[in-house]
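Why does residue order matter? Because the sequence determines the fold. Keep that principle in mind as you read this record.
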Amino acid sequence: MDYQKIIDEYYPEENRLREILMIHSRQVADRCLKIAKTHPELKLDEHFLEEAAMLHDLGIFATDAPGIECHGTEPYIRHGIIGAKILREKGWERHARVCERHTGTGLSKWDIEQQQLPLPHKDLMPVSIEEQVVCYADKFYSKTRPGSERSVVDAMRSLEKFGWDGVKRFQKWVDLFE
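Structure:
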């Protein structure tokens, strides 16, 4: 599998959106690989981690998020579902699950229904250890400030607005991955 070919297919031009995506995705991938090296006991699939981290935000191009140069029509919260659909069509199911399950610290069916989010009414929670690592690593890097890194405390603060369940899940990951 060549994740770069997929990125090139959906982001063919050298522009600010591609730059933002590549910086952010590389930061997430590097953190994932660092976790894998620091925690050999987790037996993480490093090759898959890098691919999944580089592709987790593939669907942002189709969303309406002008602050990060996305000028599509879909709500930003759907970027994971969009990326998952693309990857499923290519037969990359495992990578697709990372895309659709990385929003926040994952979204439960209950949260989706209660908040009336424009997402499928099903659990979108990271399940495999690799899904959890990508989701965790993603919380340290904002696409609105490419190249910067949040502290654990700042990452937790960014999750507070979505409820305490997500903050608690993130804290468990801090304990496991740091």
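The chain has a mean pLDDT of 96.
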